[in-house]
Amino acid sequence: MISIVVATGNKGKVKEIAAALAALPVEVLALDKFPAIPEAEENGDTFAANAVLKATHYALHTGMPCLADDSGLEVDALNGAPGVYSARYAGPGATDEACNAKLLAALADVPQNERTARFRCVLAYVDPDGALLTAEGTCEGTILREPRGTGGFGYDPLFLLPGAAKTMAEMTIEEKNAVSHRGQALRNMATTLARYIHENRRA
Ligand SMILES: O=c1[nH]c(=O)c2ncn([C@@H]3O[C@H](COP(=O)(O)OP(=O)(O)OP(=O)(O)O)[C@@H](O)[C@H]3O)c2[nH]1
Ligand SMILES: [Mg+2]
């Protein structure tokens, strides 16, 4: 059993990551176990840069393997916004409701067939031996005109998966992980991590 710190302040992400790792011999520790660690400053220009800087920051402070997630929503009609600023779209510390309201206002004149968008997720794993592994996932969808569903977090109630005819907020965690950017990135990370462990055993 190895212990991994899930290095995120977002409780929605912790739940999804813990559910995805539940079948593995991994103990998931959340950041509330480490209240003295200062928050990482997310000043990267890309999801990858922010994921790596968060994982590195928390690995240095905990001395433990850390898994960080940087993710966000890219809306085509907004030239990819809010992107890396998704959590702060309606200002620093903005609520999900405020970000959703701003998104709906920005898309008010955009017809349904032009409301295409995708979620992106980059995961970074850093361990005290200096390993740095990254993995990505994306999920395509469209933005509705009003929220549907109560699950998930963030923009989930507005994000429709056309194939499933459900928003991400109308899915269980397991259903969301099966199709989401984060679920895909977690599966890619599991493969990358297994390969890394195998190669280092042989070395
Ligand atoms: O509806 C959503 N379903 C998702 O599955 C999802 N994944 C990301 N997002 C949005 O993108 C921001 C990430 O920003 P972010 O990576 O900086 O995370 P965060 O600031 O919330 O926590 P931390 O991990 O940085 O501590 C989040 O706050 C959300 O607005 C999502 N919205
Ligand atoms: Mg953040």
Automatic annotation (TrEMBL):
Which of this chain's residues are annotated to bind substrate?
Answer: T8, G9, N10, K11, G12, K13, S71, F153, G154, Y155, D156, K176, H181, R182
The enzyme class is hydrolase
For this chain's record, the cofactor binding note is: Binds 1 Mg(2+) ion per subunit.
Quaternary state and interactors:
Homodimer.
Q: What is its EC number?
A: 3.6.1.66
Report the GO molecular function annotations: ITP diphosphatase activity
Which residues are listed for Mg(2+) binding in this entry? Answer: E41, D70
UniProt cofactor(s):
Mg(2+)
Supply the source organism for this entry: Anaeroselena agilis
Query: Any idea what this protein is called?
Result: dITP/XTP pyrophosphatase
* Protein family membership: Belongs to the HAM1 NTPase family.
- CDD domains referenced in this protein's UniProt entry, alphabetically: HAM1
The UniProt catalytic activity note for this protein reads: XTP + H2O = XMP + diphosphate + H(+); ITP + H2O = IMP + diphosphate + H(+); dITP + H2O = dIMP + diphosphate + H(+)
Active-site residue list: D70
Role noted for this protein: Pyrophosphatase that catalyzes the hydrolysis of nucleoside triphosphates to their monophosphate derivatives, with a high preference for the non-canonical purine nucleotides XTP (xanthosine triphosphate), dITP (deoxyinosine triphosphate) and ITP. Seems to function as a house-cleaning enzyme that removes non-canonical purine nucleotides from the nucleotide pool, thus preventing their incorporation into DNA/RNA and avoiding chromosomal lesions.
Record keywords:
Hydrolase, Magnesium, Metal-binding, Nucleotide metabolism, Nucleotide-binding
